[in-house]
Amino acid sequence: MAETQVQKETETRLYELAYLVSPELSQEKLQDTLKKVKEIIEKYGGQISQEQAPFKRFLSYPIAKNKEAYFGFLRFSLGTEYLKQLTHDLKLESSLIRFLIVTVSPKQLKEEQRPVYRPAPEAARKLYRPKKEKPQEIKPEEFEKKLEEILGE
What we know:
By secondary structure, this protein is an alpha+beta fold. Helix content is about 40%, strand content about 30%. It has helices spanning about 1-10, 25-45, 85-90, 105-115, 120-130, 140-150, and strands spanning about 10-20, 45-65, 65-80, 95-105. The chain has a 4-stranded antiparallel beta sheet with strand order 2-3-1-4, with helices on one face. Strand 2 and strand 3 (about 65-80) form a beta hairpin. It is elongated and about 85 Å long.
């Protein structure tokens, strides 16, 4: 029983951290903030496996009186016992407007490895391809006749 508790405490999981950084920061300070976030993760033995550089985007609604912010994310593995401490340290980082840490499930990883686009078989494409209609050729006499009918002359 005691071995399973110890095993659970040292278990590492894959997490994803999505964060918003204040838009008022210069590029240098933005990079410093990103570096601090990475250092906080590594301080607890986390290993960063994927990273998206922060980019500026408009927010759906104002957050801390900001209508835009830098958005970025990190994917990392970390021992489950360090998650609360990591969250606490990230809350203390003043340039982060908001952040969210989620667990990445193995099912999500498999779905990401799937090809995004699979072309339909040729037989299916033929079934759903709309037929192009050829424009009707109208003789000038018929055109004049229809025009007179419409105009009432």
